[in-house]
Amino acid sequence: MPSTRPATLQDVADLSGVSRGTASRALTGGGRVSAETRSRVMEAASRLHYSTNSGARNLRRARAGSIGLWLPGGMNFMEYYMNFAVGVVESTKDRELTVTLVPADFPAAKAGSLHVDGFVMADVIEGDELARAILETGRPVVVSEPVPPGMPEPTAVVAGDHRTAMYQLLDLLRAGGATSIAVINPPANQMWVRVAASAAATWATENDVAVTFVDLAGLPSADELHRTVQGLHTRHPDIDAIICLPEGLGVGILSILRELGHSVPDDIQLVSYTDSPALPIVQPPISALDLRAGDAGRLAGELLISLLHGNDVAEHTVESFDLIYRERSSTRPLGK
Questions:
Q1: Calpha distance 225→256 (Å, rounded)
Q2: How far lies 234's CA from each of 128, 227, 239, 260, in Å?
Q3: What is the distance between the alpha carbons of residues 331 and 176, in angstroms, rounded to a whole number?
Q4: Which of the listed residues 150, 206, 244, 335 has the most CB atoms within 10 Å of its CB?
Q5: What H or E segment, with its residue span, contains residue 30?
Q6: What is the distance between the alpha carbons of residues 157 and 144, in angstroms, rounded to a whole number?
Q7: What's the pLDDT score for residue 44?
Q8: Could you tell me the CA-to-CA distances from 319 to 99, 189, 304 in Å, in that order?
Q9: β-pair partners for 215
Q10: Which of 307, 308, 303 is nearest to 64 (CA)?
Q11: 3-state secondary structure 120-158
Q12: pLDDT in tens, 156-180
């Protein structure tokens, strides 16, 4: 009578011709295993209908089998953070890890009690007490974008190249004929905002082009945004290009410019610093920067998993990636 006992890790190792440790690393994604060996072990596991007991393994290793995800409070609804979260989840595929979303109102004093092995954090806000407490737990923490000065340093950082991206946008607007550019900023309590604004100021000095900064106190209502754009036009009637950093305001600014009698891009070119599904379908479609939120989340998750597996990752590693410009009809062709 054939045996009905479930296959063991040793069975998988024997069938694939490797040691038990190598089979374990191949199945969990930890350590260094060649692609050929990993494929052979995975095939053996499939033939034997082997399934790992992640709960038991985590108990042996004193691990939670989960990573914590912190997103800035009040911003979870934004397209960027939803895509970022999906990217983090995708990084755990086939890793037998879950992702635990840390509530924005979770008590900072209890951050150390969260049953997770490490954390991924996106756009740490200056002075946020829960963010500070998470960074001080002593567990591995990978952040997307550097933390503001005065906050504890994370284990590693994944960051978009905002300086290069801002220079690219400004160069393109100038090449399209812009001579006076406005940059609309969200509150500068996140480092990516500070880096982008600083790059714009440096570019203005280097290129002797007027750049006006409009700093928002928060997410404006429709009326507040109207007053902001109208006031900008009143104070600076020569403005002929606008870069909008806050997500979700590009369509509103386009509508307001039309109400004020401006043609986009003939009178004023418009660029959104953050792309979203609405921007390609308005008229004219709005040029935008793809911040690659899903890629950022995936990179951050993979870097944290490497740390949890004990792979060789230098302390305070910074991994940068390029941002992608999506040219549409709200900007003028070069030289026009």
A1: 8
A2: 36, 10, 10, 11
A3: 7
A4: 244
A5: none
A6: 6
A7: 86
A8: 22, 22, 12
A9: 185
A10: 308
A11: EEECCCCCCHHHHHHHCCCCCEEEECCCCCCCCCCCEEE
A12: 999 999 999 999 999 999 999 999 9
Q: Tell me the per-residue pLDDT of 238-265, one tens digit each, with 9 for 90 and over.
A: 999 999 999 989 999 999 999 999 999 9
Q: Is the pLDDT of residue 229 over 90?
A: yes
pLDDT band, residue 56 (cuts 50/70/90) = very low
| Closest by CA position to 316, among listed 165, 141, 73 | 141
Distances (CA, A) of 279 to 77, 185, 234, 243: 17, 18, 26, 14
- Give the pTM: 0.79
Handedness of CA 122, 68, 217, 292 (dihedral sign): positive
What's the full length of the chain, in residues?
A: 336
The structure tokens 């740390």 sit at 307
List of residues 6+ apart from 282 with CB closer than 8 A: 251, 254
User: How many Å apart are CA 75 and CA 79, to the nearest integer?
Assistant: 9
